[in-house]
Structures are given as C-alpha cells and as structure tokens.
C-alpha cells in the first residue's frame, strides 16, 4: 500500500508532497482509499465535504473508528496523515488474520483538510463532522488564489460520526521523543493548546529609491520586529512555548517598491491555555508598539484556535502499560483532538520518526517501526472492540 501512495503529489525537485484538499493529488488518494476499502468488503460512507468512513460491519452498538487524513502541508512529508490511514487498513487485515470477529462495527476514516493548508482552518473536515463548526461558518473561506470553499465542494451538514463510540488515531511522531526514549511506538497523553493568528501590517506604498528613510511607513519593518518579538517571547517561556511566523504575503510585492501591506500568520503553541493567551498578547503588544514607532498599523485576527486536549486513558493504557509503551504529550494538532473536544472518547498512537523532522520532505519512519505501529494499533482496536 505504501508503494502505491509514494508517487502521488510528490515534487521531483524537492521530494516533498503537495496534497491539498479537493485537488487532483488528494482526490487520487481518496479514490485509492475507496478501492482499498472495496477490496476488503468494507462499506464506504461519505459526507457532503468528502469525509469518508469505510465500515467493517460486524456486531452492534457504537462503532470503533480509526484512521487519519490524506492531505499535506505545502512541500510536506509522506507520513503525516497517510501513515495512519495505511496502518488502519493494515490493522483490519491483522485483526482478520487473528480471527477477530468484532462485536461492534469498526470503521477506517479519512478526514479532509486536516492541515488547514488550503483554507486556513486546521481539522476543518473533522470539525464539520463533529459539528464544532457549521457549513455556514466555513463555506466562505478562501484559499491563496481567492477560491472559496463553497465553490469547490457543495458542503452541508454531516452525520458521519453519529454511530461512533470512540476514535483511535495512529500518526508518525513529529518530534524526537521516541528517538530519545529508544521506543518504536508511543501513546499520546494529550495535545497542547495551539492556534493561528493573522497579523495584517498596513503602511504606505512608495518608491524604494526616491523616498527618504525618515519619510517611510514601511510595514516590513513592523513585521520583522514582530517576528523577532515572537521568537523572544517564546524563548522566555521555554520550554513551554512555540511561536512561528511561517507564512508571509507582501503587497504589492515589488522589488523597487515599499510595501503597502504585509500579512503574516503566527502559529503559537503552549502547554496551557493561559500561557498561550499570554504569549499571543505579549507578541501583539510589541507589534502595536512597533507599529506606532514606524507609522504603520497592525490588526490581529484569530483564524484557528484549539484548546488543550486530554486523551481518554482507558482506550490505550490497558494495552500500553503491560507493553511498556511511553506516554508523551504532543504539540501538534490532530483530528483526534477535534473528536475528543467534541466528546468522542479518543486516543493516539505515535510511530517513531528517526529524523525528528515533520512538515518537511525529511519526515520519515522505518518500515520495522511502521509494522510495530500496525501491531500496536491492532492490539488497541481489538481491546476496544470487546
């Protein structure tokens, strides 16, 4: 299965992946998933935005759901998301090899736009599926080309998770904890609160050559000092803070012109919600102070904010403890966090990433560790199906 996915959406130049939702690469992966589900006799259900669950219909009662997502960030790695989907299908195979007959339905799910890399809202698909946001809330979201979400998919309400009793997501680890612990598999205790804030810095467009330095209202200066402030504030709060300006848009973006506007997106994460609020407030305060000095202005808009998540220990702990799997928090957002926040009991398993790098072509997992992850996921699912 992994060989089937490897070439889809991959850049020959960088080795990274571009699998944005509702584009050809992601739709190809969705078609692949449907074929894999059909080959296993699973019954596929899809909602109005493309979230999909393939059900192994067996037994009665609330279903056990596993799976992840197939979309990627821009120039992302191969494992973030797809590893969870492939491992879920492989876990179904392992359960059948073990002779397991579920007493409850077992589903393999694929959520759309988990990364939020196209329309800006992380876990958009799972938020819609859980009812955390409505279609009316998101249909007007636009991508970088100005294309509205409502123009690429019909959308609407979703009842896809109505019969789901719990969710278990496997994911490649996006840090080095399992490398340092020398463990192939780990269990997530929870997710740090995190979010994305858009900073719009407005100045005055002018000629780069004829405008004296003292006459300028340059928003790039305000943004640059704000980026340095974010770095400083996060380091002051270390090890409990992360702050990153990873996306920047400049208008009119001319080499010989002073910009009129800089839009920059702050990704901030902390171990607690008060610490996160304090970090964003400190960065905003310094941005405003610098804007006054530069003769510019700044507007801050919260675009996607998620609170702290604590996963349900009864799901994975009975399997993890006797096997000695380490338990660790994660600073990355996941669909499991969206389901947990909506009241669906959830758990996460991590597979070791020897590079410790994610959202990059360097993201990796060794096949032996991936197979260990499949066995671990099958163990947790078997326990959950009892």
Automatic annotation (TrEMBL):
Belongs to the peptidase M20 family. It comes from the Bacteria. PANTHER family: ALLANTOATE AMIDOHYDROLASE, ALLANTOATE DEIMINASE-RELATED. Pfam families: Peptidase_M20. Signal peptide: none annotated. Keywords: Hydrolase. The keyword Hydrolase applies. The keyword Hydrolase applies. This is Allantoate amidohydrolase. It comes from Nocardioides deserti.
